[in-house]
Structures are given as C-alpha cells and as structure tokens.
Design brief:
With about 350 residues, this protein is α/β, with parallel strands linked by helices. It folds into 2 domains: about 180 residues, Rossmann fold (3-Layer(aba) Sandwich); about 140 residues, Rossmann fold. Helices cover about 25% and strands about 25% of the residues. The protein contains 8 helices and 14 strands. Strands 10-9-8-11-12-13-14 form a 7-stranded mixed sheet, sandwiched between helices. It has a 5-stranded parallel sheet with strand order 1-4-5-6-7, sandwiched between helices. Strand 8, helix 5 and strand 9 form a beta-alpha-beta unit. Helix 4 packs across helix 5. The longest helix has 17 residues. The chain is globular. About 45% of the residues are buried. The structure holds ribose-5-phosphate (R5P). Ribose-5-phosphate binds next to strand 11 and helix 6.
Amino acid sequence: MLLLAPGRTALSQRSPLLFSGNSNPQLAEEIAKRLRVHVGKALVSEFRNEETRVEIGENVRGSEVFVLQSICKSPNGKGVNDAVMELLLMIDALRRASAARITAVIPYYGYAKQDKKTKGREPISAKVIANLLKVTGARRIVTMDLHAAQIQGFFDIPVDNLFAEPVLCNHLKREGLCDDKIVVVSPDAGGVHRAEQFAKRLNSSLAIVFKRRPEPDISEVTDIVGDVTGRVAVIVDDMISTGGTLAKAAEAIKARGATKVYTVASHGIFAGEAVKVLEDSAIEKVLFTNTIPFENGAKHPKFVQLSIAQTFADAINRITTNRSVSELFAGEETPNGVVGAPAEPVAVS
Ligand code: R5P
C-alpha cells in the first residue's frame, strides 16, 4: 500500500509546482494565474562575489516541478549567462530536494543559433546547453519555436516544442491581415517551412527573401522569389535580434512594390540598437510574443507584444495530466488565441 503524507496524492493527480528564475518573472506569474497555482518561493540572487545563489523556499519532495526561465537578459539587468546559471542551479536544488520530476520550461531557448559548426574550431553551443540541462537533472523540456527543430535531438529526454503561430495568426486575422490581402514572406531560406505554415493558416500566398551574412549580425538581401507587388507583406521570423534581417527585408520588399510591411516573430530579443533600427525602418508594426520581456512597450507604439501564457499553461496542464500536447496545435482557433481544447485549470488536490 502506498502511504502518503496527509494532503498528498499520487504524482499525476497533484498540482504542479511552478518556480521561476529572474529572466521572465512576469510570464511565470501569468502562467501561474492561468493554472491557478502560485509561483513557488525561491531566492534567486547572487553572493557578493557575483556567483549565483539559489534557495528553494518550499517543500518539493515527490512533486512534479516546472522551472520557468528564458535564456535571455533579465529585467533586473542580469545577462544571458546568468539566466543559464540560475536555471541550472534551480534544477540542481530541486533535484537534491527530492522533486519527483523536473521540467525546464524555457520559452526562449538561447544559444540556439549555434546549433552546428559553420567553420572549424567553433562550439555547438545549443548542444552544450542541452548537456548541462540533462546532467543537472531536467527530465523534460518545454520550449517554444526552437531556432532549429533538430535541437530536440540534442536531448535524450522529452522535448515539447510549442508554437506561437496560432496566437500570432489569430492576431493577424483580427487585424484583417489574411487571405489574398497579404503575402506571407520568409526573410531567409531557413525560414521557408515556418512561413509556409503561416501562409497555410492565413490562406495566403508565399514569397521568399534570400539573404547572406557577410559577417555575424550583418545581413544583406540578395534576391526575392514570389510576387509582393500591390500587396501587404507579412514577414515571419522566429526571432528578432539586431533587427537587421527584418529591416533589410522590409526595405527590399517595399522596393519590389509591396504596399505595407508587417513583421511577426516568436522571440523579441532586440539586441543593441534593434528597437531604433526597426523604428526607423519601413515596417508598419512589429509583432512578437512575451517569451522574452519587453520593457517600455508603451513608448514604442510600433511594437506589439502578445502573450503566449495560455499556450504554456495549457501545455503544463496537459503534461501534468498525461494528455497530448500536440493536440493543442491541431484544433480550431479559440477567442483567446489558442487552438485546441480551451484551457482548463489543473486539478488542485
Ligand atoms: C536567422 O536564421 C534567424 O531566423 C533570424 O532571421 C535572425 O536571427 C534575426 O537576426 P537579426 O535580427 O540580428 O537580423
């Protein structure tokens, strides 16, 4: 007979525990609200010598635990590498505190662009991050729009790669940006599959911009395939880093006769002068999600941030109750921007 402490039930029937590092606490709060749980107490700060300091403030023994941390800069000023270290130390602390299963929820999986050697003597950084997560004790990864889907293969544990596409497409449809009014544009050859998926969901045609990178973080448009003349173009990308790819693509598309250019991306990194680059560009609106925090949104009317909290809440709910996650992306659209079954709160024991 299984003996459980009073108030405790078997793993699959119990509320999950959700903890957050410092990189995206607002998203963690939004997800927790939708799951009707609270963000677990945890001290995630640093020692005077700047080493990361973590202390979990709640009992996690035998629990299903989710740790949310995007691999990006934190609103408190900490850098990308601090985000990685916080995540690893939180997982380690949870494992040593006897959590039953630890899932790393990484809305934006950083270091993903370095997913292969492009020349000799380079690291494969995306694989290093995967190794660290696995060795530290993560037993499942939940992420969104990995830069390259094959990064899933860097892990030998389950990876749920969620999609922002339904949320972004719902918004575009609400704005009337669909059907033959628009042409969906991929800003490079690598993004064609993603753009095709958007074009299908929006019932629109497709065009492709070809770009080259003479050096890291610099892009140049070399060609455009497909007709953009007289249409509103919607450029679809997975991430915005320096903004150069989108700004240059928008300029080239406009020069080919597009009437207006909108851009959508899952992850808004906005490195360096990206916000200014995009503000000064030919782009009407820059749409992106809150996988990465964006501060001072009110000061930048061209920038529209959409919440993907519901998608993550649904996925966590389904993982906790052993239901399909892929079903989330197979159904009809709902008013809250998520496809599939409407969000249900996780059963609270
Ligand atoms: C490239 O493969 C990616 O999909 C993005 O197009 C790229 O990372 C965007 O970078 P940036 O904003 O610096 O041009």
